[in-house]
Amino acid sequence: MRHFLYAAAALAAFATPAVAETIAITGGRVVVGDGTAPIDGGTVIIRDGNVIAAGASVAVPADARRIDAKGKWVTPGVFAGFTRLGLSEVDAVKGTNDKSGGKSGFSAAIDVAPAIDPFRSPFAVNRAAGVTRAVVAPEAAESIFAGQGAIADLGADSNPVTRARAFQFAEFGEDGAALSGGSRAGAHLHFRAMLREAQDYAAGRGNFDDELLKAEDAKALLNVLRGETRLLIHVEGANDMLRLIELKRDFPSVKMVFVGVSEGWRIAPQLVEARIPVIASALNDLPATFEMLGATQSNIGRMKDAGVQVAIGMINDRDSHQLRYTTQYAGNIVSLQFVPGATGLTWDEAFAAISSVPADIMGVGDRFGSLKAGKAADVVIWDGDPLELSTAATTVFIDGVEQPLTNRQNRLRDRYARPTEGDLPKAYDR
Asked: Whole-model pTM?
């Protein structure tokens, strides 16, 4: 019992927020994150976990703790647009992999929030790389509807969930077909039938807990039908996206967000007309599958030019571990501006695509994604341009609390950077 009490006390201490204070970050190149140009010699004021002001000629309160950011960049934290953060430590080890509902028998009702583990190493590694919030989605198991995803923060505490049941995730295209008996026709029928059964459930009709839809799944889908919960759909091919747009006409209240979207450029006008935002993979430029024959690195730039609301994500791309690639991907999209015949984003647009835009798409832009007054103080100080490969985060705040940047990788680096005679590998101190 004594050991249990000690453990409980330690956990409580770990989760306790720091004492509120006023912090002034001065002299840096301030990026608000809303697509506007950086502000040289700017100031960011943090108080009680919120951004109070950010910009030029900002008065510094007398009681503020000052942080000199001269020669550095100051930005909102990276908002990772699509991840499986905290759901897997080693994908091939079943005991550490909680990405899907497995053989539970449930589909849309699956809620990833209880499975998100902040003690897994990707939290610390990606926090040290400037990632402060993440969209965390389940992986489909036996149905095209995978379950309910969450918005998580990467703070060094025991409560990572910012918003549970923030969206529903579904598979379409080739993956959706495979989950529906092997055909796209089956996937369309599967999609319609499950939504119709949810309507029947709401009306008190039908027999539930059958093979297609359990009562708990129907309850989860009702929130999608009412437009109260966003529906993120993984889809790559242009034709599959057009068919989903047609389905949306039958369910007009459903708030669809397309994820992956390798061929989105082909139907950009239709996406704009349907008002469907996208979280797109940045570097898909090879025909890895038949639904990606039209993949091009110019995809994001072309969609943005057409008026599509575009964020950068990384579905099925080391999305449990390497969220830190997000800034590199944004930087690559910027570089496309200088490639003859290619279409990229401006620097300002690219950074917004990994900060304010994904927050807006997920319906939390009023609270996260930029350094505008009143928003959560997710703030990162960088030693250079954050979209350059050689740049590192030097200071990270989440909800106004300065975060530790140590992790397993930099501890290994430091341990073996200058080995001496007699040094042997050894386990970390626990």
From this structure: 0.91
